[in-house]
């Protein structure tokens, strides 16, 4: 057994369990998942051996790291949505209020004019320098049902939004949900795109996005047993892939349940991304260590 592999199998189970309780938005499942998730998080906290900001060890692989798993999951969610338009599918980490915490964190950046919910300022006349700011552009990586982007729009963010996912069924589901909504959602766009293998086209990438979002996607990628051209687990190439999508000076906001805060820093702090801040979650203490079952960290691209 590899050093630390016992500790690593716990977080894998965390995402796996939510996968098993895939209709996770239903109350019974939320309760079941919450209890289990907290127990596993305590285990992870108690057995963590990782030094601060070192590169974390890999997780054990699982079906949640495969495209086939997600295609099948979103096929089911499309059927459910067709039968009941109120059922938009799983909102990942809803028991931890992750989406709300990400929204609140982004709002706090808008409050200090780092981000802009709508076009802001005056257009310059003649030679004068303009202080005009376009509304923040968002990219959601592994968008699933697109819920996070729809929630941002509902919250008054008016900028361009793109959701990408390697599952064609996810893109179909997100488009179907969008079609059931009002005209203000029309310019939320969804694309089939493999973050690790795709080459982003200028047409939708532009100069990069002001904010790139990830809720549960790196968690899923961390469970893949695929190797890249250099023979590494594909999770190793994720940071580099993300860096290319964030505009210089832009933000990468990631939420994870499979990795602790220090582990997320270990994965993403590097040449282009620097750790900036974190969203607050209720924490618990076990065996003298303090942590939470989900974390949301913000990195700024240099
Ligand atoms: C745990 S789900 C999270 C979905 C969504 N972000 C949410 O919070 O509801 C992980 C998502 O990542 C997508 N995904 C996994 N690997 C990917 C890759 N290499 N490129 C694009 N999407 C990927 C899956 O299809 C799935 O939709």
Automatic annotation (TrEMBL):
Entry similarity comment: Belongs to the class I-like SAM-binding methyltransferase superfamily. EFM4 family.
| UniProtKB keywords | Cytoplasm, Methyltransferase, S-adenosyl-L-methionine, Transferase, Transport
Does Hydrolase appear among the keywords?
A: no
Q: Where in the cell is it found?
A: Cytoplasm
One Pfam family this chain carries?
Answer: Methyltransf_31
This one is known as Protein-lysine N-methyltransferase EFM4
EC annotation from Swiss-Prot or TrEMBL: 2.1.1.-
Record-linked Gene3D superfamilies: Vaccinia Virus protein VP39
Top-level taxon? Eukaryota
This protein's species is Karstenula rhodostoma CBS 690.94
User: Which InterPro entries does the record match to this protein?
Assistant: Efm4/METTL10, Methyltranfer_dom, SAM-dependent_MTases_sf
| Role noted for this protein | S-adenosyl-L-methionine-dependent protein-lysine N-methyltransferase that mono- and dimethylates elongation factor 1-alpha at 'Lys-316'. May play a role in intracellular transport.
Please give the Gene Ontology molecular function terms for this protein.
Answer: protein-lysine N-methyltransferase activity
């Amino acid at each position: 057994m590899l050093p630390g592999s016992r500790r690593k199998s716990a977080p894998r189970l965390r995402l796996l369990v939510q996968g098993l309780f895939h209709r996770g938005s239903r109350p019974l499942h939320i309760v079941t998942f919450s209890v289990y998730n907290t127990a596993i998080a305590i285990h992870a906290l108690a057995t963590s051996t990782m030094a601060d900001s070192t590169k974390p060890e890999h997780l054990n692989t699982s079906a949640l790291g495969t495209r086939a798993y997600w295609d099948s999951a979103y096929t089911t969610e499309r059927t459910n949505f067709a039968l009941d338009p109120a059922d938009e599918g799983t909102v990942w980490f809803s028991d931890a209020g992750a989406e709300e915490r990400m929204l609140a964190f982004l709002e706090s950046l808008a409050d200090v004019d780092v981000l802009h919910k709508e076009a802001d300022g005056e257009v310059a006349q003649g030679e004068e320098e303009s202080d005009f700011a376009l509304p923040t552009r968002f990219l959601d990586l592994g968008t699933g049902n697109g819920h996070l982007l729809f929630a941002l729009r509902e919250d008054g963010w008016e900028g361009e939004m793109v959701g990408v996912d390697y599952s064609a069924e996810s893109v179909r589901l997100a488009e179907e949900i969008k079609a059931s909504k009002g005209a203000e959602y029309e310019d939320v766009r969804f694309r089939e795109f493999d973050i690790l293998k795709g080459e982003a086209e200028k047409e939708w990438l532009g100069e990069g996005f002001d904010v790139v979002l990830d809720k549960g996607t790196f968690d899923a990628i961390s469970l893949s047993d695929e190797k890249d051209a250099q023979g590494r687990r594909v999770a190793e190439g994720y940071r580099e892939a993300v860096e290319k999508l964030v505009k210089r000076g832009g933000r990468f906001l990631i939420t994870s349940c499979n990795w602790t805060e220090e582990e997320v820093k270990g994965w993403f702090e590097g040449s282009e991304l620097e750790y900036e801040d974190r969203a607050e979650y209720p924490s618990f203490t076990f065996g003298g260590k303090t942590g939470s079952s989900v974390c949301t960290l913000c990195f700024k691209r240099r």
